[in-house]
Specification:
Elements lengths: L2 E3 L11 H10 L5 H21 L6 E2 L7 H8 L5 H4 L5 H10 L1 E3 L2 E3 L4 E3 L6 E3 L2 E2 L12 H11 L5 E5 L1 H6 L2 E2 L11 H18 L3 E5 L9 H15 L7 E5 L18 E5 L7 H7 L5 E7 L9 H15 L4 E5 L18 H4 L5 H17 L5 H16 L6 H8 L12 H12 L16 H11 L5 H22 L16 H4 L3 E4 L6 E4 L2 E3 L3 E7 L6 H9 L6 E5 L1 H6 L9 H21 L4 E5 L13 H18 L7 E6 L8 H6 L4 E4 L10 H5 L5 E4 L12 H11 L21 H23 L1
Parallel strand pairs: 1-14, 2-8, 7-9, 8-10, 10-11, 11-12, 12-13, 13-14, 19-20, 20-21, 21-22, 22-23
Antiparallel strand pairs: 3-4, 5-6, 15-18, 16-17
The structure holds the ligand CN1c2c(nc(N)[nH]c2=O)NC[C@@H]1CNc1ccc(C(=O)N[C@@H](CCC(=O)N[C@@H](CCC(=O)N[C@@H](CCC(=O)O)C(=O)O)C(=O)O)C(=O)O)cc1, 2-amino-4-mercapto-butyric acid and zinc ion (ZN).
Zinc ion (ZN) binds next to loops.
Protein name: 5-methyltetrahydropteroyltriglutamate--homocysteine S-methyltransferase
Cofactor: Zn(2+)
Function: Catalyzes the transfer of a methyl group from 5-methyltetrahydrofolate to homocysteine resulting in methionine formation.
Length: about 775
């Protein structure tokens, strides 16, 4: 029999229940016991959904209050001393690592949080010491949650991040020099104990995630797999059988690292179906293949015919008992259920499948290949009908958009003059001081803003009332910036629900949802709009608010847009058209917006591209070069339609810019703001080595945490930056937008930031 398996389920709940509970707990409005009870309720509900869907192998320990890697950091005793010595209980210690803690005499910033592979999910980086030790918690989460499910009558497959990935995804703490992978011998005993305890609790199999195998690995990490998994195999029946799990790429280049003596190997056959034959050929003689054929990263209905063909091809080589039908990755990256979408056009809704529906899909595919297609005849027919309806729908095709794309000229990618000429024209107009201060765009999205927007959406207030409210918010933001004495203002983005969803809602070719939330980090969620057809801009999207903001501001006001690559990456993209085509369509729509902003008197326009780095193919080589080529072109196409005297800014809040520096340089933006506060300023040396001539604002403090940085801390950061950057090219700004913060901490932090900038301004004026 071919089993069906889900690799992980979204945690938030049908109504973002987990977000609401954790935020209530942080605000002191929910007890810890009630938070934990809510988490338990959600886990049980999610196991039941999968059971009712007919899934054979249901995951546990895929749940986390904040992040699954963070949970493992704590369970393995890898908590840096600054947190473990703070006298917090386990839950608060965990949250302190995730989001910082500044209360009751404890003042610790959070651990670094970075993108999970090329997704919009963020994980907390294991942050390791030279003398690191590991100790398994007395009551490990993986065991607790397995037992919890078992007591509810569901025998699950616990999920762990494997030892090589755990270390490879980690880093040495500040001031430490350890290479994480060198800690493997110390870490392995913890896995042995944990796996033994899981077996004793009744777990027959464990999903051990080693997704780093899809990277180009350093030799040491690659070589670490074999001895690690031989060691675990030597424990025989003392531990559960292991499903060695990879996703988000192919593993063909790392095949020798795949353990031979292992129960099962999972591969992502949505991203890389072509790896099937090679991987099957390299499996150990008894190893099972877990075939990831239901997309864990997108919302399109699975094409059953295609998926069944892939699974059948594996069965032909391995036999039915050696194949599992699975989701390609965890379903964490998909929304909870399509059933909540009451407002979607039924024609389009018929094309989608969210997490709960995908659980049903794996079960149907497994049944089709086990018992034959006749056993699921109706489901197969309905699916074929949906596939055909989408392929032939008029909604996907706009000839005018295609015509405009075909007429793009090489000159459409270049500004009129080179940077030196542009910057002097801009400076003449803007008259900015040395070390100009600015923020990244958004100001706190208060409860009041969300309530007003919600009222407007529900038609409880009319457009004029909502517009008036937004104008008042802009007035307030301008006043606050006057008081703070910032140099380049922002309107604060109060009218935006999200920097991508907002644009998706204003562009043709997009569908958007009411409940399709996906966790981005901690309690924060996004509702990615869905690209269903060719994209175009029916009307200006941001001009009204920016024009108003300029009219009430005495200093330069930035116009604020989300760039084409980020709009693409943080949407659910089409899977029937290459992403470069979708990015180009977005770029043309944004180009018109940039030109309209300039016409409306906006002299500084920021086009954010935080997702440019995240879209970089995970392995170096031709694919990466091709991506960078079209991604850079899309950015340029969207920004270069302006006069030299208009200053183009761009923003990146993911700091690993070293490996794509040439692409950042090729964007030709006049000013870049980049996330920097959590990384070593040494990384900035790339700007010196490459003689980068343009302006840069490396973030001087972390905005993900409510913690207020002191003026001295900010001065120290600026001092470090000045070792690498020239005073006349340095801007002073936070790491990213301030929408997730409260006003109190925002003002306090910005006062310190402006004071720090003024200190250096005075120092260098002498
Ligand atoms: C900058 N980042 C972003 C990423 N991806 C995006 N798509 N957008 C980003 O900004 N990726 C990387 C980084 C970090 N990630 C995030 C992700 C999410 C947030 C965030 O603050 N999310 C908000 C939700 C934002 C939103 O869409 N809000 C809507 C709906 C608000 C709402 O909940 N309304 C209520 C009713 C009102 C009420 O009572 O409060 C409801 O619908 O029930 C809006 O504002 O209208 C979050 O809260 O999770 C930040 C950074
Ligand atoms: N302008 C956006 C960028 C976030 S990456 C903001 O400030 O929220
Ligand atoms: Zn940002």
């Amino acid at each position: 029999m071919v089993q069906s398996a889900v690799l992980g389920f979204p945690r938030m709940g049908v109504n973002r229940d987990l977000k609401k509970a954790t935020e209530a707990y942080w605000a002191g409005n929910l007890s810890q016991a009630d938070l934990l009870a809510e988490a338990k309720r959600l886990r049980l509900a999610h196991w039941k959904i999968q059971k009712d869907a007919g899934v054979d192998v249901i995951p546990s320990n895929d749940f986390a209050l904040y992040d699954q890697i963070l949970a493992q950091i704590q369970d393995f005793g890898a908590v840096p001393e600054r947190y473990s010595s703070a006298g917090l209980d386990r839950v608060d210690e965990y949250f302190a690592m995730g989001r910082g803690h500044q209360k009751g005499g404890v003042d610790v910033p959070s651990l670094e949080m970075v993108k999970w592979f090329d997704s919009n999910y963020h994980y907390v980086k294991p942050t390791l010491q030279d003398n690191q030790t590991f100790t398994l918690a007395s009551s490990p989460k993986a065991v607790n949650e397995f037992v919890e499910a078992k007591e509810a009558g569901i025998v699950t497959r616990p999920v762990l991040v494997g030892p090589v990935s755990f270390l490879h995804l980690g880093k040495a703490d500040r001031g430490q020099s350890v290479n994480p992978i060198d800690l493997l011998d110390k870490l392995l005993p913890v896995y042995e104990q944990l796996l033994t305890q899981l077996k004793e609790a009744g777990a027959e199999t464990v999903q051990i995630d080693e997704p780093v195998l899809v990277f180009d690995l350093p030799a040491k990490a690659k070589a670490a797999f074999k001895p690690t998994y031989e060691k675990l195999a030597s424990l025989g029946d003392k531990i559960p059988k292991l499903v060695f799990t990879t996703y988000f790429g192919d593993i063909v280049h790392n095949l020798e690292a795949v353990p031979q003596d292992i129960y099962a190997v999972h591969i992502d056959l949505v991203r890389n179906p072509e790896q099937l034959d090679t991987v099957v050929g390299a499996l150990g003689p008894k190893t099972i293949l877990s075939a990831g054929v239901v997309d864990g990263r997108n919302i399109w209905k699975t094409n059953f015919k295609r998926a069944i063909e892939i699974v059948e091809s594996a069965i032909q080589k391995l036999g039915k008992d050696r194949v599992i039908v699975a989701t390609s990755s965890s379903l964490l990256h998909t929304p909870h259920t399509l059933a909540s979408e009451k407002k979607l056009d039924p024609e389009i809704a018929d094309w989608f499948s969210f997490a709960s529906e995908k659980a049903v899909e794996v079960a149907i595919i497994a049944k089709a290949v086990t018992e034959g297609p006749a056993s699921v005849k109706d489901a197969l027919e309905a699916n074929a009908k949906s596939m055909n309806a989408r392929a032939t729908s008029k909604r996907t095709n706009n000839p005018q958009v295609k015509d405009r794309q075909s007429k793009i000229q090489p000159s459409d990618y270049n500004r009129k003059s080179e940077f030196p000429s542009r910057i002097s024209q801009q400076q003449e107009k803007l008259k900015l001081p040395l070390f100009p201060t600015t923020t990244i765009g958004s100001f706190p999205q208060t409860k009041e803003i969300r309530v007003q927007r919600s009222k407007f959406t529900k038609k409880e207030i009319n457009e004029a009332q909502y517009d008036k409210f937004i104008e008042q918010e802009i007035d307030m933001n301008v006043k606050i910036q006057d008081e703070l004495d910032l140099d380049v203002y922002v309107h604060g983005e109060p009218e935006r629900n999200d920097m991508v969803q907002y644009f998706g809602e204003r562009l043709d070719g997009y569908a958007f949802t009411t409940h399709a939330w996906v966790q981005s980090y901690g309690s924060r969620c996004v509702r990615p709009p869905i690209i269903v057809g060719d994209i175009s801009r029916p009307a200006p999207m941001t001009v009204k608010e920016s024009k108003y903001a300029v009219s009430v501001s005495k200093k330069p006001m930035k116009g604020m847009l989300t760039g084409p690559v980020t709009c693409l990456r943080w949407s659910f993209p089409r899977d029937d058209v290459h992403q470069s085509v979708q990015a180009e369509q977005l770029a043309l729509a944004l180009r018109d917006e940039v030109v309209d902003l300039e016409k409306a008197g906006i002299d500084v326009i920021q086009v954010d591209e935080p997702a440019l780095r995240e879209g970089l193919p995970l392995r170096s080589g031709k694919e990466r070069e091709a991506y960078l080529d079209w991604a850079v072109k899309a950015f340029r196409l969207s920004t270069v339609g302006v006069e030299d005297s208009t200053q183009i800014h761009s923003h990146f809040c993911y700091s690993e810019f070293q490996d794509f520096f040439h692409a950042i340089a090729a964007l030709d933006a006049d000013v870049l703001s980049i996330e920097n506060s959590k990384s070593d300023s040494k990384l900035l040396s790339v700007f010196v080595d490459e003689a980068y001539p343009r302006h840069i604002g490396p973030g001087v403090y972390d905005i993900h945490s409510p913690r207020v940085p002191s003026e001295q801390e900010i001065k120290d950061r600026i001092e470090e930056m000045l070792q690498y950057l020239k005073p006349e090219q340095l801007w002073i700004n936070p790491d990213c937008g301030l929408k997730t913060r409260q006003w109190k901490e925002t003002k306090e932090a910005l006062i310190n930031m402006v004071n720090a900038a003024k200190f250096f301004r005075a120092k260098y004026a002498k």
